[in-house]
Amino acid sequence: MNGADVQVWSFVTAGLMFIVGLYAIVFMENLIKKVIGVMLIGDAVNLVLITSGFKPGGIVPIIGEELYNNASGLFQGFADQAAYSLPFALVLTNIVIGASTLAVLLGLTIKLYQRYNSLSVTTIFKEDES
Amino acid sequence: MNSELIPLMVVFPLIAAILLNLMHGKQRAVRIFGTVAMIVVLAVPLLTAYGSHLFGAHPVDDALPASKIVIPEINLAIEYSFAFLQKALVFLLAVIATFVVVSHTSNEKRVSGVYLSMIMLSIAAVSAVVMVNDIFNMFVFIEIATISQAAIVIAHGGADAYKAAFKYLVFGGIAGGSILFGIALLLGTYGVLNISDLHQAIGGSVGDPVVLTAVALLVIGWLFESGIFPFHSIKSNLYSAAKPDVAALLQTETKLMLVAIGIILLRLFGGYSNMTAVMLGLSIATMVFGAVMAMMQTDFRRLLAYSAVSQAGLVGVGISLGTAAGIAAGIFHAINDAIAMSLLFITVYFIYERAKTSDLTKLGGLLSKAPRLAFLQIIGILAVSGIPPFNAYQSEFRIIESTVAAGYPELGVLVILGTILTFVALMKGFYLTFLREETTVMALEKVRISNALPKVTLAALVILCLACIGIGLFPMPFYDRIADVALNVMVGW
Known about the structure:
With 130 residues, chain A is mainly α. Helices cover 76% and strands 0% of the residues of chain A.
C-alpha cells in the first residue's frame, strides 16, 4: 500500500468511525455506549487531522542543528519534504479537550447510575418524555 | 487605555478559575477573591483600548530579518480583535456574571470555589470566542465553554441537572466534532486557520464540495451553540435545570456565541446563499417552536427557558438575513434580549429561592406580598416582548424593518406573531404567579416572600431595568456603532 492509499483509507476509516459514533449516540440504549460514541466522533476527527498533515514519503518537520548549519539559503527543500506540522498540534489540543469531556461524562454517568440503579436511557430519561 | 490588556480578558479569568479551584473549602478566601476577581473582570474591558493582539508570532507580512527560515506572508499567530462590539459583549457578560458570583458569595452560607471557578472558565471561554480571529481557537474555547456550562449546571445538583448536563455534553460532542471536522477540511484546502486569511483565500466563492461540506459542518456547530432548531430543546433543558440566576448567565453566553460564531460564518461564507437560507429557515423554526413551547409550560423556569430559545431564534433571523441592516438588528437584539431576559430570570430566581418551586400550578397571590418584584418583572416582560419604550422594541422593530427591506415581508409578520406569542406566554407566567389568588399549596407551606429584596438582587434588577429603559429611550449612540460593525461583516461578498 503506498502513501496515497494510506491517506485515502485513513479518511474512509475516519468517516466510518464518525458514522458509528453518531449511531451509538442516537440509537444505543446504554449510557456508556453513548459516551463511547462521543469519543469515537472525537477520534474520527483526530484521524482526519492527522491524515491531512500526512505527506507520503515526508520527513519529520523539525529543523535539527545539523540541517540548519549545513543549509545554504532558504529551507525550501525541507519545506517541500516535511510533513505539515500544524494538524498535529491541533490533534494534541483536541485529545486534551476529549479527555476533559470524557471525565465529566463518566462522572455524570456514575451519578445517574447511583440514582437510577440503571444505565438504560429509557429508564433514566423516562420522566422527561412523559 | 492600553490595547496590551486585550489578552487579560481571557487570561485573567483563566488564572482566577485555577486559583478559585485551589481555594475550594477556604470560605473566606473564596468569598474575597471571587468578589475581587469579578471587579477585575468588569474593569478590564472598560480600560482596554481598541486594537488587536497577536500571541507568540509576528505581525502580518513581517518577515524575520537575518533568518534562514521563510516566514510566510500569512499570519500564523493567534489573534484577538477588540473593537466596540467586542467591548459591549464582553462587558455585558461581565455584568451578568458579576451578579451570579456576588449573589452566590453573599447569599449562600457555604461558597464553592469549584462553582465560581467554572463560572470564571465560562467567562474566559465566551470572551475568547467573541474576540478570536482564528477558527481553531474558536473551536477550543467553544469546547471549554460547553464543559464549563455543563459543570455550572451540575453544581446545582439533582437528577434533572445531571440529565440536562449529560445530554448537553453528548450533543456538544457531536457539535464539537462537526466544527473540528469542518476546520480540518478548511485547513486541508487552504492551509490557514486565521479567519481574515481564510476570508481572502476563499475569495468570495464557495463551490468546492470539500468546502461545502465544511460549511455544513460549521453550521451544525453554530446551531448547537446558539440553541437553534434542532438543538433548541437541549438548551432549554439546560436553562430550566440550572438555578434561574445561572440560567440568566447561560442564556447571555448563548446569545453572545450566536452572534460571534454567526459573524464568523458570514465573514467566511456570507455570499453562499444556501447557507444563509438554511440558517434563516432554522432560526424561524426556533423562534416559532420556542414561543409555542413556552405557552405550553407549567413551570416558570421552563417557560422562561423556551422564551429565551425563541428570542435566540429571533436574533438568528436578523443575522441570517445577511444584510447589513439585518446583522446590525440581530446583534442589537442579542444584547437587548440578554439584558431583558436576565432581568426576568433574576426575578424568577428570587421567587424560586423563597418558594422553593417555580411550578405555576403552585404559585399565586404574590402581588400583595411582593409588589416591587411584580413591578420589576412586568418591566422585564414588556421589554422582552418588544413593547415601547423598552430596549427590545428598538431592536425587534429594526429586525422587522430589515426583513421587509430584504424582500421578506411575510417574515416580518412571523416575527410579530412570535413576539405576541412570547408576550402571551410571559403574561401567563406573571398572572399565575402574581395576579391570581394565593393557592392552597402556597398558604399551607407558608412561603415567606416579602417586598424586601436582598440588596444584591435589588441592585442587579435596578441596573438591568435602567439598561432596558436607557437603551430603549436612547438607542442611536449604541445602534450606530453596531451598524458600523455590521457594514464590515459582509465586505468581499
